[in-house]
């Protein structure tokens, strides 16, 4: 059984995929990994949704993740946590844990981008399976260091 580490969404970096379409790279890291993070390629819509959930962009209408968060709240359910679980056939898997009003926990298979987009809206913790560290990369590959900061290579 996998061990999970408390994770954080480090950033969502906009990029262009191999088909020339706008996409994003979601960087999820754990304190234990130091300057490394999982680079998870996500779509343009999910990139926008996560950035909106973080308050980095504004959008005039609710997005799907906003709607889901509102529905859960209206039903008295809460997102307890989300986990990024595995890499299966080049695709990351995730789980959303929802507690209903009676206190029962329900688990839902999800794409990591959807799980994180929901988590940032409801301030739910994110966890990552520690065995995914082998796929983590140096975040400086995706995020340049702040101006004037010297990095060691």
Quick tags:
globular, nuclease activity, 21% helix, eight-stranded mixed β-sheet, BFN_sf, alpha+beta, Bi_nuclease_dom, 153 residues, 8 strands, BFN domain-containing protein, Bifunctional nuclease domain
SSE blueprint:
Layout: E1 4-16, E2 22-30, E3 36-43, H1 44-53, H2 64-74, E4 78-88, E5 91-99, E6 105-110, H3 112-122, E7 126-129, E8 137-138
Parallel strand pairs: 4-7
Antiparallel strand pairs: 1-2, 1-7, 2-3, 3-8, 4-5, 5-6
Helix pairs in contact: 1-3, 2-3
Organism: Pyrobaculum calidifontis (strain DSM 21063 / JCM 11548 / VA1)
GO molecular function, one term: nuclease activity
InterPro entries: BFN_sf, Bi_nuclease_dom
Report on the architecture of this protein.
With 153 residues, the protein is an alpha+beta fold. It has a single domain (4-141), classed as Bifunctional nuclease domain (Roll). It is 21% helix and 41% strand. It is built from three helices and eight strands. The chain has an eight-stranded mixed beta sheet with strand order 6-5-4-7-1-2-3-8. A hairpin with a 5-residue loop joins strand 2 and strand 3 (36-43). The longest helix is centred in the middle third of the chain and has 11 residues, at 64-74. The radius of gyration is 16 Å and the shape is globular. The chain starts with a strand and ends in a 15-residue tail after the last strand. 28% of the residues are buried. Residues 4-140 form the BFN domain. Pfam families: BFN_dom (PF02577). InterPro entries: BFN_sf, Bi_nuclease_dom. This is BFN domain-containing protein. GO terms for molecular function: nuclease activity.
């Amino acid at each position: 059984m996998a061990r999970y580490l408390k994770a954080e969404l480090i950033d969502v970096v906009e990029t262009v995929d191999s088909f020339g379409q706008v996409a994003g790279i979601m960087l999820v890291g754990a304190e234990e990994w130091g300057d490394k993070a999982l680079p998870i390629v996500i779509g343009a819509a999910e990139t926008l949704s996560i950035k909106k959930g973080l308050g980095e962009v504004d959008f005039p209408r609710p997005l799907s993740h906003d709607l889901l968060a509102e529905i859960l709240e209206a039903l008295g359910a809460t997102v307890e946590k989300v986990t990024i679980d595995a890499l299966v056939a080049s695709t990351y898997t995730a789980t959303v844990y929802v507690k209903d009003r009676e206190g029962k926990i329900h688990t839902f298979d999800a794409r990591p981008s959807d799980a994180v987009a929901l988590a940032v809206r409801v301030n739910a913790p994110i966890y990552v399976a520690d065995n995914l560290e082998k796929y983590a990369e140096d975040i400086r590959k995706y995020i340049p260091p702040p101006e004037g900061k010297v990095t060691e290579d």
